[in-house]
Every structure is written in structure tokens, then in C-alpha cells.
Design a protein that fits this description.
This protein is α/β, with parallel strands linked by helices. It has a domain of 242 residues: Type I PLP-dependent aspartate aminotransferase-like (Major domain) (Aspartate Aminotransferase, domain 2), CATH 3.40.640.10. The protein contains 15 helices and 13 strands. Helix 6 links the parallel strand 4 and strand 5. Helix 2 packs parallel to helix 9. The longest helix has 32 residues. It is globular, with a radius of gyration of 23 Å.
């Protein structure tokens, strides 16, 4: 393709705005309307009472999620951040315990650990899946390690066989942060369901959309009860329930409302269609982008599926001879929106670089509960850091509802830019 690049004054490949992703339809509107008209927007009571577990829509949505994902328990919360906080507390983490987590994630994965005055320890990621590298996890284990938090980033499960085997050898609990991968499969089971506790986000740009919210899933009776307690004022409920282990029974109002759960019931019915659509778009992009010099399209592990919250690519900068920022500018000028040049490395955020969280004196790292000096220096996660700094290129499929014609235009823009790499080298 010889047309002049838009970045250099030529015409853009894409001139229209793609349809915004909006999975809310008439079913969700009707479901919300019925709840509003009932006058029961929430039915939780923060005491040991039949309504401790919420109202009819909460219970119905949880039952349907448990059935759908093939688990004993599904527990709704008002955000996935709340879900992560509840999960870390429910597995019995103590102040000063170390929890291994990847840096390549949303910050809540790590701050949920800090919330219980435990210490996040960052292990590197696999360069192909972007999920936790089991070898790096093994190298991070110390006598103080009590859990692993696997993040199913962008829509694909972490290597759960390897991580669960490590956990079994060392007596650790495992949490699956599957916020971005509801419905993705791992060897015949749903991502998020293979750990001691896992779950999904219901945030507005996720696959299942109720505005805000999250769903915790587990097969463990005790963990399920503790999740329910932390969600709803545990300290006021344990006596009535006869709970004697008060570990982490500091409760919150993490409750999801009846409207959101009513909408979630409708959304859950559509999940497979949402996944099919994303996977179709990803396959079409694969077909059209595979073979471009220095561009690696997404890798999917054998016997697994990908939910494609993001379509993640990797650049070979040496082969291309053009840096990522220049490529992104060129693609954006051609009309490609939703591109991400890098992804957050959580260990490099100020909270970890300065080790200031609770108060101003470095708690918990400077306190007696912290058993050792934990490094968050740049260089501890070289794979994640190089991807962020130089080679990762993500396309946020969660932002748009793309037709085949839209995908073809995106592919044309990539081919146009790749066809003019020599031009770009002059400004890179």
C-alpha cells in the first residue's frame, strides 16, 4: 500500500467513529424498571437475619452465576475491588504475610493485599500470555509467603495447573483475579473457578455490565461464609451466626443492589454471545495481521479460550526499526482508536516506590509485622517492564462493537502503516 500516511499529511484510512460497546438492551431496562417499581432497591440487613444475604434479585443472580460457572457459591459485591479485598481477607491472610501478585494488572490486585496489612511481592509475567510466570512465582516464595494472586489479564487464564501445583507444594492459597476473563475456558473449566477463590468484574466496560459490581466464586464452604461476612458488617453478625474464628472479621458494606443484580441476570444470559463476538473479531484480526513484520498477534494456550477484553500484541522493535510511540501515532492518525502503548507496572507506582501506604511513616513495610526488606525496584520484573516500556501494543476491544467491515478497516490501517515503515524511520 503506497498511500501517504495520515501522520505525514495523507488521507486517513478510517474516517467514521466505531459503534460504542453497549450491551444494555430492552431486557435490562425492563428488569431494572421492575425492581424500581417494586420499591425494593436493596434488602440487605447488617445483622444475622434472613435478609443478611440480600434480596430476591441478589439471591437469584448469585444462584444463576453459581450454576453457570459450575461452582458451589457465587457471591456478589459492589465492585471487583471490594471482591479482591474480601477474597484476601477470607483466606485468612495475617498482617505481614506475603502474597505474590503480578505487576501487569490493575492496581487493586495489589492494594487489596495491602488492605489487610499484608505485603505484596511482585513476580514477573509470561511474555506470551502476560499472566504470572510460574517459574518467577517459585523464585519469589519465602517462609512468609501465604498466597498467590493470579491475574487472568486481557481475557486469558493464567497457567493454573502450574500455579496450583506450586501452591500445593508450599501450602499456599490461590486467588484468581479474573476481572477481564469471565467465560474464558481453561482445560474445560471456567477461568476463575480453579483457585480457592476467584471472580469477575461487572464494571461498565467488562463483558457482563451492571455499571459497577463483582462476582466472587468458590467451592469452599468456609471461604464462602467469610466472604459473605466481610461483605456485610461481619463484626455485627459473627455472634448471631455462632462464628468463633474472628480472623479478619472486619466487615464492610460491599453489597450489590437489586437493580444491578436484576440487570446481571439478563447480562449473564448474553455472555456467550458477547464472547463469540469478541472471539470472531479477534480471529479476523489474526487472519489479517499475522505475517506483518515484527508484529506478534495474541497467543492462546492449548485447551484454553480467550475472552479478549483486550487484543494484546507484541512488537519486535529491532525488526521494525521504528519505536512503538511512532507506530501508535501513525495508527491513531489513520483512525485506529483504543490503542494502548504499554500497560501499568504496579510495582513502579508511588505507593510501592516510596513505600508509603497507611499514615506517613511507611506502614506496613517499616513496622515489626514486615519480616524482611521487599524490593520494588525497577528491574525485578524485566519481562513486564520491557513490555510496558518498549514492546507491548494493545487494542481495547472492550470499547467498541466492531463489525467485519470495521475490523477490515483497522487491518487496512495496520497494513498501510507497515507498508510505510521507511517513512516512519525518518521521524522515529
Amino acid at each position: 500500500m503506497s498511500a501517504k500516511l495520515a501522520l505525514l499529511g495523507g488521507p486517513a484510512t478510517i474516517t467514521q467513529t466505531f459503534k460504542h460497546y453497549n450491551p444494555i438492551g430492552a431486557e435490562e431496562v425492563q428488569a431494572a424498571k421492575e425492581v424500581i417499581e417494586s420499591g425494593v432497591l436493596s434488602q440487605f440487613i447488617g445483622a444475622w437475619h434472613p435478609d443478611f444475604l440480600g434480596g430476591p434479585k441478589v439471591k437469584a443472580f448469585e444462584a444463576q452465576c453459581a450454576s453457570y460457572f459450575g461452582v458451589k457459591y457465587a457471591i456478589t459485591v459492589n465492585s471487583w475491588t471490594s471482591g479482591l479485598i474480601a477474597a484476601v481477607g477470607a483466606i485468612g491472610i495475617q498482617p505481614g504475610d506475603e502474597v505474590i501478585v503480578p505487576p501487569w494488572t490493575m492496581c487493586a490486585s495489589a492494594t487489596a493485599i495491602l488492605h489487610w496489612n499484608a505485603i505484596p511481592v511482585f513476580a514477573d509475567i509470561d511474555p506470551a500470555t502476560f499472566c504470572l510466570d510460574p517459574k518467577s512465582v517459585e523464585a519469589c516464595i519465602t517462609p512468609y509467603t501465604k498466597a498467590i494472586m493470579a491475574v487472568d489479564i486481557f481475557g486469558q487464564s493464567a497457567d493454573m495447573d502450574a500455579l496450583m501445583a506450586i501452591a500445593k507444594r508450599h501450602g499456599l492459597k490461590v486467588i484468581s483475579d479474573t476481572a477481564q476473563a469471565p467465560g474464558a475456558m481453561y482445560q474445560g473449566k471456567y477461568a476463575g473457578t480453579l483457585a480457592d477463590v476467584g471472580g469477575f468484574s461487572l464494571n461498565y466496560h467488562k463483558h457482563i455490565h451492571t455499571g459497577e459490581g463483582g462476582i466472587l466464586v468458590t467451592n469452599d464452604d468456609e471461604i464462602a461464609q467469610r466472604l459473605q461476612l466481610i461483605r456485610n458488617h461481619a463484626e455485627a453478625v459473627v455472634e448471631g451466626m455462632g462464628v468463633t474464628d474472628l480472623t479478619n472479621m472486619v466487615g464492610y458494606n460491599f453489597r450489590l443492589g437489586e437493580i444491578e443484580c436484576a440487570m446481571g441476570i439478563s447480562q449473564l444470559k448474553k455472555l456467550q454471545n458477547f464472547l463469540d463476538s469478541r472471539q470472531h473479531v479477534a480471529q479476523r484480526l489474526n487472519d489479517k495481521l499475522t505475517g506483518l513484520t515484527g508484529l506478534t498477534t495474541p497467543y492462546v494456550m492449548p485447551d484454553c479460550t480467550h475472552a479478549y477484553y483486550v487484543y494484546p500484541m507484541v512488537l519486535d522493535i529491532e525488526k521494525l526499526g521504528v519505536n512503538r510511540n511512532t507506530l501508535v501515532k501513525a495508527l491513531q492518525a489513520e483512525g485506529v482508536t483504543g490503542l494502548g502503548n504499554g500497560y501499568q507496572n504496579v510495582h513502579l507506582l508511588p505507593i510501592f516506590q516510596k513505600k508509603v501506604a497507611y499514615g506517613s511513616n511507611g506502614f506496613p513495610w517499616t513496622s515489626d509485622i514486615c519480616h524482611r526488606e521487599v524490593s520494588y525496584a525497577k528491574g525485578i520484573c524485566p519481562v513486564a517492564e520491557k513490555l510496558h516500556d518498549e514492546t507491548y501494543l494493545g487494542f481495547a476491544m472492550c470499547l467498541h462493537d466492531l463489525s467485519d467491515a470495521d475490523v477490515d478497516l483497522i487491518a487496512q490501517a495496520f497494513h498501510k502503516v507497515w507498508g510505510q515503515l521507511e517513512q516512519l524511520k525518518t521521524i522515529s
